[in-house]
Specification:
The protein is α+β, with helices and mostly antiparallel strands. The protein is built from 2 helices and 13 strands. It has a 13-stranded mixed beta sheet.
Length: 170
């Protein structure tokens, strides 16, 4: 985990196969998401097991568990495009999806400053771009928001890309 910050400062690429989604930093595999049944995803990082799953209907949310205990909770409003994120540490973030003119999923710190975003770019051919704006936050929390973004934006990515993201350093 000591080298996580340096890996997040390099080009990141997601690649998709039938049941696996792999995040690479240049040629180094950071983690591999394994799709399971019922929209559940699992992965290993730094010797720990994580799972991601959606829950609820009227009060929908997404949970990331570490070693079976809740690590991150994302709570959406039934109507609307915003969600609140809380880590087990108590750190609070938010995210917002917009569709004008193209789909964009943004993550913000508690002061509403943008940290990172996934955006559909159709300048030449449709592809999804991941851009990290603020790398000063906790590296593990930043990585979990990158994973959460992939999990949430996966349908748009697979529909429009050659199954890869490109990190654009701002």
């Amino acid at each position: 985990m000591a080298q996580l910050k340096s890996l997040l400062n390099q080009n990141l690429t997601w690649s998709f196969s039938k049941k696996n989604i792999v995040l690479r930093s240049n040629d180094v595999v950071l983690l591999e998401l394994r799709e399971e049944k019922s929209a559940r995803v699992s992965f290993e990082f730094d010797g720990k097991s994580y799972t991601i799953r959606n829950e609820g209907f009227w009060n929908p949310g997404t949970i990331i568990e570490k070693e079976g205990k809740q690590f991150l909770s994302l709570k959406r409003n039934f109507f609307g495009s915003k969600a609140n994120i809380e880590f087990e540490s108590g750190n609070l973030y938010s995210c917002k999806i917009s569709n004008s003119p193209l789909a964009k999923l943004s993550f913000f710190n508690k002061d509403e400053n943008e940290i990172l975003y996934y955006k559909l770019d159709a300048t030449q051919k449709p592809m999804t771009v991941l851009s990290i704006i603020d790398k000063s936050i906790n590296e593990l929390e930043l990585l979990m928001m990158i994973v959460l973004g992939c999990y949430s934006f996966k349908g748009i990515i697979q529909e429009n890309d050659d199954a890869a993201f490109i990190l654009m350093v701002a």
